[in-house]
Design a protein that fits this description.
By secondary structure, this protein is an alpha+beta fold. The chain folds into 2 domains: 4-236, Hsp33 domain; 242-301, HSP33 redox switch-like (CBS domain Like), CATH 3.90.1280. It has helices at residues 23-33, 37-55, 108-112, 142-152, 187-199, 203-208, 213-221, 242-250, 254-264, 282-301, and strands at 4-10, 15-21, 63-69, 76-82, 86-91, 117-123, 130-135, 157-165, 171-181, 226-233, 235-236, 266-270, 277-281. It has a 6-stranded mixed sheet, covered by helices on one side. Strands 8-9-2-1-10 form a 5-stranded antiparallel sheet, sandwiched between helices. Strands 12-13 form a two-stranded antiparallel ribbon. It binds zinc ion (ZN). The site of zinc ion has 6 residues, from loops.
């Protein structure tokens, strides 16, 4: 099954819902960053939740950056997604593997920690980006996004995200759902949804059985009680390039660039998001320095 996300609304129009299959996406992240089980699950769950959050914004050009720092051994997680389902991300400590937790699951909460915050920056074309943060609930990621939506966006919701890691560190399954309560939803409907979510088989079991995003939403709302509105591909995608990093380098202090040029006769830059390496020769560095000097002059004039 290829990765894709579905957007839906319940037949009674009381809930909006999203579900995604993201095995390929998380597999690419796992390979790019050589993550071990707990880091794979923590990063993967964050990528999945960030993708659903970004695609839930009905604005062209919208994008979301999520930063999670919980004080646990996995360090910080950063994920960046746009409204078209492109996502990228990294985790500062990729080699975390922990004993399973009491439920027999990967101990994501233990890896991430819960003494910290989930920070979300929303950016839309033509608008200033804005950032809000909430304390982490459990560090299990799904709970933390649920808490963020309730606290920061005033949207009662349920976010479920899951990554199954095989013994050889490859990704066996990955995916998630996000259900948001719409204004006017009745208490009865909300209560019945809550019990449905509790009764449901565990998400990773459904994903391992190759249940599709549509299957998962049909299971949550009941067969035929959900209307699918849109399907879109989702992808781990990094838009970095040698030119983009050259622009970033141009912003560094000129003295710093000159000393690197003199001592190392060139430079290598590694992209945090996809681990791709870019080399700049001594000559290329010289042209970056020349450009930086020119920019400096022009900004001084202005
Ligand atoms: Zn990159």
């Amino acid at each position: 099954m290829k990765d894709y996300l579905v957007k839906a609304v319940s037949e009674d129009k009381m809930f909006r819902a999203y579900a995604v299959n993201a095995k390929e996406m998380v597999s690419v992240a796992q390979k790019d960053h050589d993550t071990w089980s707990a880091s794979s699950a923590a990063l993967g769950r964050t990528l999945i939740a960030t993708t659903m959050l970004a695609t839930s914004i009905d604005k062209s050009g919208a994008a979301i950056t999520v930063k999670i720092s919980g004080g646990g051994p996995a360090g910080q997680i950063v994920a960046d997604a746009d409204f078209q389902g492109n996502v990228k991300g990294f985790i500062s400590k990729p080699h975390i593997h922990l004993p399973l937790n009491a439920k027999g699951h990967i101990d994501v909460g233990g890896a991430v920690g819960h003494n910290g915050v989930l920070e979300v920056t929303r950016a839309s074309k033509g608008e200033d980006p804005y950032t809000s943060d909430v304390p982490l609930a459990t560090g299990e990621i799904g709970d933390d996004f649920t808490y963020y939506l309730a606290q920061s966006e005033q949207i009662p919701s349920a976010v479920g995200v899951s990554v199954f890691v095989n013994d050889d560190n490859s990704i066996g399954a990955a995916g998630g759902y996000m259900v948001q309560v719409l204004p006017g939803a009745s208490d009865k409907a909300i209560n019945s949804l809550e019990s449905k979510l509790k009764e449901m088989p565990e998400l990773h079991e459904l994903l391992l059985k190759n249940k599709s995003p549509e299957d998962i939403l049909n299971l949550i709302f009941g067969d035929g009680k959900v209307k699918f509105l849109e399907t879109m591909p989702v992808l781990f995608y990094c838009n970095c390039s040698k030119d983009k990093f050259a622009k970033d380098l141009k912003g560094l202090p000129i003295k710093e660039l000159q000393s690197v040029q003199k001592e190392q006769h060139g430079m290598e830059v590694v992209c945090n998001f996809c681990q791709k390496k870019y080399q700049y020769s001594e000559l290329e560095l010289q042209s970056i320095i020349d450009q930086a000097k020119l920019d400096h002059k022009n900004s001084n004039k202005a």
